[in-house]
Write a structure and sequence with these properties.
Elements (H helix, E strand, L loop, with lengths): L2 E7 L9 E6 L4 E7 L5 E2 L4 E10 L15 E10 L16 E3 L3 E3 L2 E3 L2 E10 L4 E13 L9 E14 L9 E4 L4 E4 L4 E4 L2 E4 L4 E2 L9 E2 L20 E3 L11 E3 L3 E2 L9 E2 L4 E2 L8 E2 L3 E2 L6 E2 L4 E2 L8 E2 L6 E3 L4 E2 L3 E2 L5 E2 L3 E4 L3 E4 L4 H24 L3 H16 L10 H9 L18 H33 L3 H25 L1 H10 L3 E3 L5 E3 L2 E5 L3 H35 L5 H11 L10 H17 L3 H22 L9
Parallel strand pairs: 4-12
Antiparallel strand pairs: 1-2, 1-12, 3-5, 5-10, 6-7, 6-8, 6-11, 9-10, 11-12, 13-14, 15-16, 17-18, 19-20, 21-22, 23-24, 25-28, 26-27, 29-30, 31-32, 33-34, 35-36, 36-37
Helix pairs in contact: 1-5, 2-3, 2-9, 4-5, 4-7, 5-8, 6-7, 6-9, 7-9, 9-10
């Protein structure tokens, strides 16, 4: 159809209706179909349509009629039902009369004295006979500047008969106009109106011919057009109410945790931990310790500690309550719950008691009671009470073995604590109600105990000597007594070193045993309040390195050498020598007077085993080997004078 123009002029600025005339478009205005509606059209099928207008800008100087207006403020397609009459740009968009496409606008493209504009839109109609026009509106200035702009509406038409779809397709199929057949929607798609549409995320179509995609029940789909759901990573499940559109919806099953973040699979719960699943972090079981200070974001897998998922078994297990709050038992705190909370003190390493209002008194009495027991034990050890001395050695070895991480019956804690008092350990009653007490103070006080005891003995014997010389005025007897007191002093201090020998060994060995904690730092395993390779710990290591060869190895070696030499040169029974050293050899047969060093070696070995090895069964096995070896040696030599002691 030819193009038609409607020209509207206005008599004055107050004229809002104007006079409209229609005619074929004059020269200088040309509208044409670039892509006209197809000759054969089927109902409800969308067709692209393009049309354009060319202007002679000298004859039709197109203007922008208003602020921010376009040269072409309005353009669209009008599809009028042919049986209703003439189709014009002024026919309303009304059901049963005419349908309009979406209104478009554009500026002209200028090339010298010519201008052009092109429009494209989609056209979809129902079954009917139509007159289709491509409408374009623009304005030009009037010859009289005082009058409103002249409005032009121009259109080019086409007559089309829109046919119905000739085949009724089954659900899951769509009509193909080119072949006049129904095509089944392929897997990954579903029928949506007249088209096969890809399944959205969270759904899938495993087979062809579906009218609706299937929601993922367990897995997820994070891409469109999927034929199956992706399974959640290992040890995860999707949240029941989630849409199944992302792997981030897959959360850990109970008994697992997201170490590397959501969507990257979960790991089985670490040893000693409880894992609630979901986005919850692992927490320690009862009897295990974890570092609550380690922050962890399971959604992203970020942690302030490299070993946030490491849980250490407490020794004893009763120290640690565990749970979501990473709790210690009442009175316990710090690494491995080994430190006492403020206002608490420890007895025998097993009983944690509150200081209360009488805490200072309790602390002083407890320490004095322990010192009194120690002095009594040392009196036995320095004398010739062979059976008692052997029993003491048995109790000390049993006390060391009781520290192994074996599954001891809980009722043995009282017995082990009683045995522990014979170990001469300064931590038996911690003076926490009186002063600060950490692993550093414990180390130095323990290693200084022989010197402290020696100082006490010197003060005591000096007082006795002074009393005899200046109060009793018996100078000859006083000088004889002074020499005897000196020998007695050596006897007391040497026997004191022997009876607390294994505790000195343990303290020195422990300074070399560090353990890495979840935050990446290392602490002494047996004094977890002391950070390794810091100034305090370094000084402890240096002192231990000197103490071991000079005292722990040097003293029993010197003792055995001195006794063997005295036995060889016949001075073994010299009264002065007997006064000093008889506690170490008098009970043994000739040829085995040095056997005290073997007993010392036994305690040295078991102390080393208890500290150097972490596995309780290995500790027990090595201890049995040492004890059986020494038992065989003892049975072969029978070194004691008394057959009953043997």
């Amino acid at each position: 159809l030819c193009e038609v123009c409607w020209k509207t002029t206005y008599a004055s600025t107050s004229d809002s209706v104007g006079v409209t005339t229609s005619a074929e478009c004059p020269a200088g205005l040309v509208e044409a179909w670039d892509v006209p509606p197809p000759e054969s059209m089927t109902a409800l099928i969308s067709y692209p349509v393009t049309w354009s207008v060319n202007f002679n800008l000298t004859a039709f100087p197109v203007i922008q009629a208003g602020p921010n207006a376009s040269h072409i403020p309005h353009a669209n397609l009008h599809s009028c039902i042919a049986s209703r009459g003439v189709c014009s740009p002024f026919v309303a968009n009304s059901p049963g009369l005419s349908t309009h496409t979406k209104a478009l606008k554009s500026d002209t493209t200028v090339n010298g004295n010519s201008g052009s504009v092109t429009f494209t839109t989609d056209l979809s109609l129902t079954k009917e006979q139509y007159t289709i026009i491509a409408h374009v509106r623009f304005f030009v200035p009037p010859s009289d500047p005082s009058l409103p702009n002249i409005k032009y509406d121009m259109a080019i038409g086409a007559s089309r008969n829109v046919l119905p779809q000739t085949t009724l397709c089954e659900p899951g199929s769509v009509y193909d106009i080119a072949t006049d057949t129904c095509n089944i929607c392929p897997p990954g798609t579903h029928q949506q109106g007249l088209n096969c549409t890809m399944c959205s995320t969270g759904t899938y179509a495993p087979v062809e011919g579906l009218s609706a995609c299937i929601p993922c029940e367990a897995g997820y789909t994070d891409l469109e057009g999927q034929t199956s759901c992706v399974s959640c990573p290992a040890l995860t499940q999707r949240r029941p109410t989630s849409p199944g559109k992302s792997v981030a919806e897959c959360l850990c099953l109970p008994g697992s945790y997201a170490k590397y973040g959501v969507g990257k699979g979960c790991l089985e719960c670490p040893t000693g931990a409880v894992c609630p699943g979901g986005l919850e972090r692992p927490y320690p079981k009862r009897g295990f310790w974890g570092d609550v200070a380690c922050d962890f974001d399971p959604e992203w897998g970020n942690s302030s500690c490299p070993g946030f998922d490491s849980f250490i078994e407490c020794n004893p297990v009763t120290d640690c309550a565990g749970g979501p709050e990473f709790s210690c038992e009442a009175g316990h705190s710090g690494h491995l719950c080994k430190q006492a909370q403020p206002g608490w003190f420890i007895v025998g390493g097993a009983f944690w008691l509150e200081c209360g209002e009488s805490g200072h008194f309790v602390g002083i009495v407890g320490i004095l009671a322990v010192v009194l027991v120690w002095l009594t034990i040392n009196k036995v050890a320095s004398g010739n009470y062979d059976a008692m001395d052997i029993a003491l050695l048995f109790v000390q070895i049993t006390g060391m073995i009781s520290t192994f991480g074996l599954k001891w019956h809980e009722n043995l804690s009282v017995v082990n604590t009683a045995f522990g008092i014979a170990n001469f350990d300064v931590d038996f009653v911690t003076p926490l109600c009186l002063t600060k007490w950490t692993g550093v103070e414990s180390f130095y006080v323990q290693l200084s105990m022989p010197a402290i005891y020696a100082a006490g003995c010197i003060i005591y014997y000096s007082t006795v000597h002074f009393f005899g010389r200046y109060v009793v005025h018996n100078k000859s007897e006083s000088m004889h007594g002074w020499n005897k007191l000196q020998d007695n002093l050596v006897n007391k201090v040497a026997s004191f070193i022997i009876v607390m020998y294994h505790t000195l060994c343990i303290k020195c060995f422990q300074s070399f045993h560090c353990e890495e904690f979840p935050d990446g730092r290392s602490f002494m395993k047996f004094a977890p309040d002391v950070e390794c390779w810091k100034p305090d710990h370094i000084s402890m290591v240096v002192i231990s390195a000197l103490y071991i060869p000079t005292v722990l190895v040097g003293f029993p070696t010197y003792l055995a050498f001195m006794i063997k030499r005295a036995e060889d040169n016949g001075t073994l029974h010299n009264p002065a020598f007997m006064e000093k050293w008889s506690f170490a050899f008098a009970r043994y047969d000739p040829g085995y007077k040095w056997w005290e060093s073997v007993l010392t070696l036994r305690r040295f070995s078991i102390a080393l085993i208890s500290v150097a090895f972490d596995t309780s069964l290995l500790q027990a096995a090595l201890t049995i080997i040492v004890l059986v070896f020494l038992l065989i040696w003892h049975t072969h030599t029978r070194p004691f004078v008394s057959d009953q002691i043997d």
